[in-house]
Design brief:
Mean pLDDT: 87
Structural class: alpha/beta
CATH architecture of the largest domain: 3-Layer(aba) Sandwich
CATH class of the largest domain: Alpha Beta
Shape: elongated
Distance between the termini: 90 Å
Low-confidence stretches: 1-5, 333-342
Largest sheet: 7 strands, parallel
Amino acid sequence: MPTPVFKDESSQFAAAVKVAKMYYYQSMTTEAIAKDMNLSRSKVSRLLSIAHANGLVEIRINDPSDRPKSLELELEQRFALATAKVVPVPEAAGEDEWLRRVAMYTASYLNTVIDSSMVVGLAWGTTIAAVSDHLIPKSTANVDIVQLNGAGNAQGVSNAFSSNMVMRFANSFDARPHPFHVPAFFDYPETKTALWRERSVRHILDLQNRVDVMLCSVGVMSPHMTSYVYSGGFLEREDLESLRGESVVGDIATVFFRADGTYRDIELNQRTSGPDLDLFRHAKHSLCVVSGRRKVDGVRGALRGGFINELIIDEPTARQLLATTPADTSAPFAPAAPAAAR
């Protein structure tokens, strides 16, 4: 096959561009290009090399792992987080698949956080239950898994949902389980005050006050009512109306808060079995797991309240959180004054 002689550099570059377009745009092989242009295969390869060497072709690889890393840095800086982990998910896969992948990632991440001689606090809910389905066993010593809020309700639903979740974590980490067998909400604040004096309850509360790792999600009211605290019969219609009237955007461990992170004067919080949210502000690891765009307002309120220092979140939800939070109003509030003795 004859090898053409290019008259000048510009004609050689033109041939190199033509070869590059056929190779990259049309996905033609070097053999097919050689046949089409009446060149040898070695000449086609040389022309491709010329195209690369002279900047006629630029190769750009879009690594999906780079996008979450840049989002993680932005989340950490915007919200003063110690750690943010963004889980890449196919947007078209739907929120059930997002939750599954976030839960799997969280289960693996927990093995880097939970170690011997720790107390781990669990706020039960749909998201943390999903995490418990994917736990990877790790051998530890002297670990306590303590439930942060009760799960009984007026309809007689048992504590099986929360207790089973606590047992899964305990079995996975060779830990001592400490379920909290009290109602999620009391009818009267006085009943809670009286029960909190019992020795068995004080034991749980003392463990909660020594927690190293707080693991939670953010519950939110939505038309789909996917958060278990709102859909599981724990709240009466009057309770839901009261929460809407007080502009509540979410809860952590059945303790409710507003968009600005305030929570102490919300009436229902006087009757909840959940811990004072100040505990989350002072835990070494206050890890919140979030999946689904409907949780954006809730997680933003939790961040503004300073209840979270580590966040695991799916990529589409992370993008919406950043896009809808003004940079000048997103910093967490300073920690509140210490709570009164529980």
